[in-house]
Amino acid sequence: MLRDKSSRIKGGLLLSQNTLHCPIFKFSNQQIIKPKPLLSSQSMDTVVSGIRSTGNLHLGNYFGAVKNFIRMQEINNCFFFIADYHSLTTHPDASLLKKNVRQVLAEYLACGLDPEKSTIYVQSDIPETAELYLLLNMHAYLGELERATTFKEKARKHPDNINAGLLTYPVLMAADILIHKASKVPVGKDQEQHLEMTRQFGNRFNRMYNVNFFPEPVAYNFGEQLVKIPGLDGTGKMGKSEGEGNAIFLADKQDILKKKIMRSVSDSGPTEANSAKPESIKNLFTLLSVVSKSETFNFFEEAYNNCSIRYGDLKKQLAEDMEIFVAPIRTKIEEIAADDQYLNKALEMGKEKAHTSSSKTVKEVRELMGIQYR
Ligand code: TRP
Question: Residues enclosing ligand 1, CB less than 6 A?
Answer without folding.
Answer: 48-50, 52, 83, 86, 173, 176-177, 185, 187, 191, 194
